[in-house]
Design brief:
By secondary structure, this protein is mainly alpha-helical. The protein has a domain of 63 residues. The chain is built from nine helices and no strands. The N and C termini lie far apart (149 Å).
């Protein structure tokens, strides 16, 4: 009976020993796997940092090159260089230059006024010290309808020119004989026609009726 109990206990101890060895072995395997994962993670981190550093060095090396090197960006850089003489003490910041909607639009049809268009732009140039390059750059937006087509045709045929050249071309185009004839006849037409006189008289009566003193005089 005692031998049977001892044998049973020994068997249990041996089984427990096997379980302990299994647990220890699994722990060792887990530690090895964890160390390998840490190593892989550190390796990946080092590769990412090296890649970022390479990108940073490449950006610093090519920082003088425009991000999108196109003919348009080259033209903008050329314009910026040409404007550098204007950036002196008397120059006004581009933020103070009137927005496009504040510039005069030109309609070369009907009762057009090309001289007023030119004089307004000259006034803006004088008041805000605007270079010719900026004025010429806005012309494609200031001309409308058929005038825009004329501008594109002239620009394509004659190339780039300053604002005085464009002023001369506008005058040549729209200061026609018919325009001069219309302007001369405008001075010959009488201002106070019978219709205008009747309108002014009726309007004056309506205005005086609104005055208290006039009502008192009429009642008396």
């Amino acid at each position: 009976m005692e031998d049977l109990s001892t044998t049973n206990i020994n068997d249990q101890l041996n089984l427990l020993k096997k379980h302990v060895l299994t647990v220890v072995d699994n722990s060792n395997q887990f530690a090895i796997h964890l160390a390998s994962s840490d190593s892989e993670r550190q390796k990946l981190k080092d590769e990412i940092l090296a890649h970022v550093e390479q990108i940073h060095k490449s950006y610093e090396t090519n920082s003088h090159i425009p991000r999108h090197s196109t003919p348009f960006t080259e033209e903008k850089l050329s314009l910026k260089r040409s404007l550098s003489p204007f950036l002196g003490e008397n120059a006004i910041s581009a933020n103070y230059i009137p927005k496009l909607e504040e510039w005069p639009a030109f309609y070369g049809e009907g009762e057009y006024n090309h001289l007023g268009f030119i004089r307004t732009i000259d006034m803006l140039q004088e008041d805000f010290n605007i270079p010719d390059e900026i004025i010429v750059g806005k012309l494609h937006s200031l001309f409308t309808r058929t005038e825009k087509k004329w501008y594109y045709k002239m620009r394509q045929y004659h190339g780039k020119h300053d604002w005085p050249w464009w002023k001369s071309e506008v005058i040549t185009k729209w200061a026609s004989n018919s325009w001069r004839f219309r302007m001369e006849n405008a001075f010959k037409v009488p201002f106070l026609t019978q219709k205008k006189i009747n309108h002014l008289f009726g309007s004056s009566n309506r205005k005086t009726d609104c005055l208290p003193y006039t009502q008192i005089c009429l009642n008396q």
